[in-house]
Design brief:
- With 195 residues, this protein is an alpha+beta fold.
- The protein has one helix and 14 strands, in the order H-E-E-E-E-E-E-E-E-E-E-E-E-E-E.
- Strand 7 and strand 8 form a beta hairpin.
- The longest helix has 30 residues.
- The protein is elongated.
- The protein starts with a helix and ends with a strand.
Length: 195
């Protein structure tokens, strides 16, 4: 009987210590950890031509780098605001850890990488290539083929975002034109003419 009382007392003391640590000590120690600071950057973008004939394919080569600390995930996005379908886009090659995702208009997108993360519906076609995790100093690239469907200026939006999104350098570029996710993008374009 005495052993049972001692054992019960030891378990009760251990539980009090555990809950005290989990309520007071551990949360404060986690809050004192500085969040990592990955730095997303698009290091190279090239288009196969500056002018193409309607029906001709355009190849876009894009390369992203993490110039900061390790990222949980980083992606490079290539958007096509002139396109509302996905049937004329191909990923020719890539070396990202995960398979790039083709996003069609109407699909759900996330933005504003914070506690109050919001979602929007895609208005145009885009491709998100990503690696999870993306180590510091690593570079990944992709070649994408697209066939514009109309004459005129064909626009391409390029950006890169790293998570955790803990500082402004986690997003590239930091200024410019806003896309459908209210994030800054670099703009590239080609002129599409009659064949």
């Amino acid at each position: 009987m005495l052993k049972a009382i001692i054992l019960t007392g030891a378990v009760a003391v251990a539980l009090v210590v555990y809950f005290s640590l989990s309520l007071y000590i551990f949360p404060q120690s986690y809050q004192s950890i500085e969040p990592r600071k990955p730095q997303a950057i698009v290091t190279d973008v090239s288009l196969s031509a500056s002018d193409i004939a309607l029906g001709q394919a355009l190849t876009i080569s894009v390369t992203g780098t993490n110039n900061g600390e390790d990222a949980d995930m980083q992606f490079v996005s290539v958007g096509f605001p002139n396109l509302t379908t996905t049937d004329n886009i191909k990923i020719l090659k890539h070396d990202f850890d995960q398979t790039p995702i083709l996003i069609a208009p109407g699909e759900l997108l996330s933005s504003e990488y914070s506690d109050t993360d919001s979602s929007v519906l895609a208005q145009y076609t885009s491709i998100e290539s990503f690696s999870r995790p993306w180590e510091a100093g690593k570079t990944y690239s992709a070649d994408i083929e697209v066939i514009p469907k109309t004459e005129g200026r064909f626009v391409v939006f390029i950006k890169s975002v790293a998570l955790p999104h803990s500082w402004e350098q986690a997003h590239y570029p930091q200024d410019g034109t806003l896309d459908q996710q209210k994030e800054f993008v670099e703009i590239y374009s080609v002129q599409v003419t009659k064949p």
